[in-house]
Amino acid sequence: xxxxxxxxxxxxxxxxxxxxxxxxxxxxxxxxxxxxxxxxxxxxxxxxxxxxxxxxxxxxxxxxxxxxxxxxxxxxxxxxxxxxxxxxxxxxxxxxxxxxxxxxxxxxxxxxxxxxxxxxxxxxxxxxxxxxxxxxxxxxxxxxxxxxxxxxxxxxxxxxxxxxxxxxxxxxxxxxxxxxxxxxxxxxxxxxxxxxxxxxxxxxxxxxxxxxxxxxxxxxxxxxxxxxxxxxxxxxxxxxxxxxxxxxxxxxxxxxxxxxxxxxxxxxxxxxxxxxxxxx
Length: 280
Description:
mainly alpha, Serine Threonine Protein Phosphatase 5, Tetratricopeptide repeat, 0% strand
């Protein structure tokens, strides 16, 4: 009996103590998530600026922005991929390859984070959608009221609301990003770097992965066809060219002409109708 009472006393203070110990962990976990979301937003600002600098071909500024982005969120894979492209254009192929492969490796974590961000964005967008629908109904009620005072531009407001609602509906109708596919651009970047490092078989494999993840990736098709042309791999070249044509992926005209000149498709033997034997 005494042992039973002691056991009850033990549990009576053990569980509250356990809860007290877990509460700070739960609080810290929530705080960490909140900070991470804020950090991601800040890192995205640095990334967007780096993209603008990259487009201006100001590679020093682009790298500076990308480093700032990655300092905030080390697994920002789009930043790693863009960093690899900068290294490519500066002739730093080994460094670029290291960065793009890191982007591929970290992508599931990055994608998961982007999916969470996208969910939040869509929730906010739905709230805007609901507010606009309420406002539209209010304006329509006002327009239909025969006793209303004249209020100018109500129809213009309705048109503006309808246009915004259409845009939001289209936005919300787009598929959510997924974690299972590394973007084709990452493999395309890898293929370019491997080509410059004269690792052409690996380069062809990388372009193939890009096409596998996006079967209309025009740049990967063209670069792969060019690589196969240079290597004289006629069978593979004709197969890839046929795949591109079947999917109506544009292939550079001069590249196509050069490829077909070097690797002409096999011609079927002509089948002539048997001639009738001349009777004597």
